[in-house]
Amino acid sequence: RKTKTKQNQRRRKTKMEKLETFGVPPLPRFGHSITAVTKTKVVLFGGATGDTGKYSITGDAYSFDLTTRTWKKLEGTGIAPSPRAAHASSAVESLQMVVYGGATGGGALASDDLYLLDLRNGDDAAQWMIVPVIGTTPGRRYGHSLVFSKPHLLVYGGNTGNEPVNDVWCLNVDRAPFSWVRLECSGDCPNVRVYHSAALCSTGSATGMMVIFGGRTSDQSALNDTWGLRRHRDGRWDWVKAPYKPNSDLPTCRYQHTTTFLGSAMAVIGGRTNQVGESVPFEVYDTETSEWFKFESIQRFRHSSWVMDASIYVHGGFEHETPNIPTDVVTCIDAATLFKNHPQLLPKPTYGQPLGTNEEDSTMRGVSLPDKNSNGYEFSNGIKLSSEAYIVNWNENDEPMDAVRKIPIDALMEESKRLGVGYHDPRVKQGPGKEIETIINYFLDPLLRPKEWNAKPNSEFPFKKEGILKLVEETSQIVQKQPTVLNLRAPTKIFGNLHGRYHDLMRLFALFGAPTEEREEGYIEGDIEGFDYLFLGNYIDRGCFGLETLCLLLALKLQYPAQIHLVRGSHEDRKIAKQYGFAEECQRRLKEDPESPGSVFNAVCSFFEYLPLAAVIEDKILCVHSGIGSKLNSVSQITAIKR
Questions:
Q1: Among 89, 120, 273, 483, which one is most buried in terms of CB atoms within 10 A?
Q2: Within 10 Å of residue 168's Cβ, how many Cβ atoms?
Q3: pLDDT digits (tens, 9 = 90+) for 91-104
Q4: Is this structure's pTM higher than 0.90?
Q5: How far is Cα 300 from Cα 272, in angstroms, rounded to an integer?
Q6: Comparing 433 with 228, which gets the higher pLDDT?
């Protein structure tokens, strides 16, 4: 039997061709990802370059046109992912891909943000953004997989930095605001694993399944099992272990390999085994017959691969002969020749294709956007694009709610910012929401008037004590749940000491935009859709309008809890507030005794004790009130401070 197998392997020669490429090629690398964003274009991202232990983690991106074999470096705008390797990527739509997770070197892991690269306007206008997600995420990890089974984006396995895992997370791209859900799969599940492979099967009995293969488990041993994740019509998810044909060769245990589908056949390319330098064959699993086929070895690991028609492409990684020096070679495997004696493994011809999936056939290919008239964009073929978009909120029962807004199409990119982390639209009635909305409007309607507000110093404060106390109570519940150090996204507007100078705050809002959704020419220009607001403390004392300043900021925090951020300053302290004027302002303008346990002054000072102490923007910019002193050496020391 062994002799026959060797003869079969000698007959099944893998026809490989080293491609000559053009343009600006990426440096040799490993641990990167390559994603097919159209039928003829792939995008490379990240990975590590260098050799023999002197490796550098990168965050660069390149496109590769398969028709011209041309590389092009993408100089994208927006918020790009940090340099990383051992991450995962997937196409979600034509000319759009997402990146998640990875390692950044030195034992550190990349953030748990989901990044989107948009190439719909061409390579020269590539744009990165962070996909706004609410709630819990899959967390930081590396060596995992990311597969898009429309409309579900699936993250599986990998290593969290402490241990390998086998959890599955799902994000439905058709449901906004976006959120990750950990799937509770019934029945048997795969073992924990890292450096496995995963791919989507689109043909045959496994259609729609994310199929995983191999990897390395918790005891460092390589695996050779295959599992498919399927979704039932009633919404349940479960794993199905792929059967292997009895009395046939089993696949080689391996990790740091890749898989890709040719029709219903899963090709397993390269990788490493538990034996250093061991040759691993090119293997193919027929999901229809449960049979494995072995072919001549392709000695690569930590590489990337993709498929076009009947050709498999392999890029980068290490070759077993030079396990410390990565390569930049693009190799093409001709599956038609390789599977000549096994035609059942070749993808079946398709008769009909959804519009827009073939870049060459797309009527929009290479067409620049025409000039916009009052009715929107119009093309010569009669197709019109509206100049406006409607934003509709949906409830848990997939029913539209009454909160409908119309925005210019040019502002649609900013809309994702408003639906950011922790987003809650106060117009959506949830439990006590109506009462909270009443409080918000009670303060914002008269206070947020950048071009109209006017008041005389020392005038009586026009709000009832009960309303102020309720505002402080509700806002306190929000800040108590926030971390000591806030992690924020750009773009963010940062405001320093206000000290009750309410006129100055209104002037800033009038000149540079206000934290609201309202837009009325000559009255107010709201930009909360595109910006977060960070206030660095010292809201009270010294100025004449500490109560107005404080109540406005608290009402805005209640209205936009995920976009208005308040940190504590030196005057957010009971003793300081007594000494520098806020206690006197409460006594004079509210006619109260600041020493009374039920006073506004007492409630506000208690609220101050829960405020966060600092903020970090995009892991790059540290924002604190006035300084870090002489004893702080790391942000983690601030995080450890008890409030």
A1: 89
A2: 23
A3: 998 999 999 999 99
A4: no
A5: 8
A6: 228
